[in-house]
Design goal:
Helix content is about 75%, strand content about 0%. With about 190 residues, it is mostly helical. Helix 7 runs antiparallel to helix 8. The longest helix is centred in the C-terminal third of the chain and has 33 residues.
């Protein structure tokens, strides 16, 4: 809280008003090297889930100007660019880790995969029995066994109804599982 008030005071009064910053040098560990080189990761994505909060180190515009005024050889000797790239890579890795964790939460569970495979197998078996029954009905119709053909046709209608029910179950399972299903449930 005090650090935030100090920053606000510095912004209002100007960088010269704070005597603490005047005592610091570029190599002081209290100075934010990422800020000197480019952008501090703490300043990125404020008010989002990725917000890191306020930076505990000093962000001083005069120090940034002093750093930028140095020639490339002096800046390379200080190694701030390396530190900046390392810090940014850590931040990127952390973001990627959070994304991977979220993706794993959205994937189908082994139980959902097993249920889907069972339903697909049952639907395939019913389709096969329906096709076999239709072939049998046509053969029975050609051989003038009408009563047997009617009985077999009734079995086919029952199998079609069962297949439609299994297809509805599969659609329901796929709607409530995986990435889209989890979002709908939330």
């Amino acid at each position: 809280m005090a650090a935030e008030q100090r920053k606000l005071l510095e912004q209002l009064m100007g960088a010269g008003a704070s005597s603490r910053h005047a005592q610091l040098s570029l190599t002081d560990p209290k100075v934010c090297r990422s800020y000197l080189v480019g952008t501090c990761p703490h300043d990125l994505f404020t008010n989002t889930k990725q917000d890191l909060g306020p930076c505990p180190k000093v962000h001083s515009e005069p120090m940034k100007s002093e750093y930028e005024s140095k020639d490339a050889a002096e800046r390379a000797k200080l190694g701030f660019e390396y530190d900046y790239m390392r810090d940014m890579q850590k931040y990127i890795d952390e973001c990627n880790r959070r994304i991977d964790a979220a993706q794993r939460r959205l994937e189908k569970t082994p139980d959902e995969i097993r249920q889907t495979n069972d339903l697909l197998k049952q639907i395939g078996d019913l389709t096969h029995s329906i096709n076999t029954g239709l072939l049998e009905v046509s053969i029975l119709g050609e051989s003038a066994s009408v009563s047997l053909a009617v009985t077999e046709h009734h079995k086919i209608r029952v199998a079609k109804a069962a297949k439609e029910e299994k297809e509805r179950e599969l659609k329901s399972l796929s709607d409530t599982s995986g990435p889209s299903g989890h979002q709908k449930l939330q």
